[in-house]
């Protein structure tokens, strides 16, 4: 099973993906936890380049090409091999983030992004995606205490577009994308996620 977690910055998806990974591991499942951009040595190098603050303008098309390139390394060298072994793969961000950030956020053609992404994914698609949804104001409130990377440093308007993008994706694919209220307590969110995952795992 391939499970992904999505959402705007500091929504809590990394916390929830780690909780799910630890629960499945403790209960005897073969599971790996990974992230995007990143997950393999080459993809992590691309991540560092993408997130570094820089004075030079970062063209949106160059940005999406790098995200897609990182995904290609990730799918080919980690995600696909693990799924072929029958393992559960949990990924903190995947294709939906590229559509939300570079499509809805940057304004690049979504059809173009989907065609590029399709090549990088090599036919794999998440079985379940959890969209941890919070207001942008809450995201910025949580960001106050930390040093921001290049994406986190974007404007409120940009992050509003990204959030709306995620919600549009969820509306298009309600069977796959489960929207979770990220304002709820961590334990309550996790119970909701675990219920969905266990139902899927027990299906023949």
UniProtKB/TrEMBL annotation:
<protein>
    <recommendedName>
        <fullName>Thymidylate kinase</fullName>
        <ecNumber>2.7.4.9</ecNumber>
    </recommendedName>
</protein>
<dbReference type="InterPro" id="IPR018095">
    <property type="entry name" value="Thymidylate_kin_CS"/>
</dbReference>
<keyword id="KW-0547">Nucleotide-binding</keyword>
<dbReference type="InterPro" id="IPR027417">
    <property type="entry name" value="P-loop_NTPase"/>
</dbReference>
<dbReference type="InterPro" id="IPR018094">
    <property type="entry name" value="Thymidylate_kinase"/>
</dbReference>
<dbReference type="InterPro" id="IPR039430">
    <property type="entry name" value="Thymidylate_kin-like_dom"/>
</dbReference>
<keyword id="KW-0808">Transferase</keyword>
<keyword id="KW-0067">ATP-binding</keyword>
<keyword id="KW-0418">Kinase</keyword>
<dbReference type="Pfam" id="PF02223">
    <property type="entry name" value="Thymidylate_kin"/>
</dbReference>
<comment type="function">
    <text>Phosphorylation of dTMP to form dTDP in both de novo and salvage pathways of dTTP synthesis.</text>
</comment>
<comment type="similarity">
    <text>Belongs to the thymidylate kinase family.</text>
</comment>
<dbReference type="GO" id="GO:0016301">
    <property type="term" value="F:kinase activity"/>
</dbReference>
<feature type="domain" description="Thymidylate kinase-like">
    <location>
        <begin position="5"/>
        <end position="193"/>
    </location>
</feature>
<keyword id="KW-0545">Nucleotide biosynthesis</keyword>
């Amino acid at each position: 099973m391939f499970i992904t977690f999505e959402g705007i910055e500091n929504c809590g998806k990394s916390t929830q993906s780690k909780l799910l990974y630890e629960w499945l591991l403790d209960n005897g499942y073969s599971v790996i936890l990974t992230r995007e951009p990143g997950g393999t040595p080459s993809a992590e190098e691309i991540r560092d380049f993408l997130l570094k603050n820089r004075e030079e303008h970062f063209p949106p098309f160059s940005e999406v090409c790098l995200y897609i390139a990182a995904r290609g390394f990730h799918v080919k060298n980690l995600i696909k091999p693990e799924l072929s072994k029958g393992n559960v793969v949990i990924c903190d961000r995947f294709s939906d983030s590229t559509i939300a950030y570079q499509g809805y956020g940057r304004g690049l053609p979504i059809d173009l992004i989907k065609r590029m992404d399709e090549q990088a994914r090599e036919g794999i698609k998440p079985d379940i995606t959890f969209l941890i949804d919070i207001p942008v104001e809450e995201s910025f409130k949580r960001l106050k205490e930390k040093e921001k990377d290049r994406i986190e440093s974007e404007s409120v308007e940009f992050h509003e577009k990204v959030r709306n993008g995620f919600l549009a994706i969820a509306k298009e694919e309600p069977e796959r994308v489960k929207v979770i209220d990220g304002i709820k307590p961590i334990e309550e969110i996790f119970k909701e996620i675990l219920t969905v995952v266990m139902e899927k795992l027990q299906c023949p």
